[in-house]
Automatic annotation (TrEMBL):
This is Uncharacterized protein. Residues 1-28 form the signal peptide. It comes from Microbispora corallina. It comes from the Bacteria. Keywords: Signal.
Amino acid sequence: MKHLLRLLAAQTLSALLLLTFVAAPARADTIETDAQLAAEWQLAWDFYKFYEIGTAPLPYTGRSRVERDISIDIDAPRDHVFAVYSNFANHIGRHSFLQRVVTHKDWTESGVHYINFTAIEDIPVVAGVPVTTKTHGQQRIHPDGYYYETDTWTLPNVVTHQKIVFYDLGDGRTRVTEHLAFEASILLIDFTVTNGVSSHQETQQGLKEAIESGEL
């Protein structure tokens, strides 16, 4: 157990060092180039997989897991809603925190569409003052099953698991149900859940309005 904790500490330190590396500005919203973000993504993904196997989000680890389900009905056919909703580019301007999405790798394997990405977000932390964060994730789109999954990792070791399912209600209507699971330290879990759920609800409403109006 002590050996595992030492390994985790070393991995955490390495992640913090790389994820806080200062480089020449590339865009107004982040100081890293897209290539540097891709390198950060790989380190974050490796650490995420290592940590998920080595520990569980239980109280004795100082972490907690909270699950929430949220749904919205949209007056549009399922095929169209699925295509629009699963494209994260359409979330920009409708997700309250999201500023841009950098795609690192995009491929299809065994009928599943994989996308490795980093989302640049401005999250209000203290007194509503936004702090720019980088959320590294992977999206897996299952077109045959009308659902997609997303796993993300953000400093300081905040993990989310998402499964978004699209149901055909008939008469050209679709229900979108998001199954959300948040993992964070016991000190951050309430903040993570509150902000995570509210941002997803805002995105749901924004996409619903854009789809039903014909904007998307």
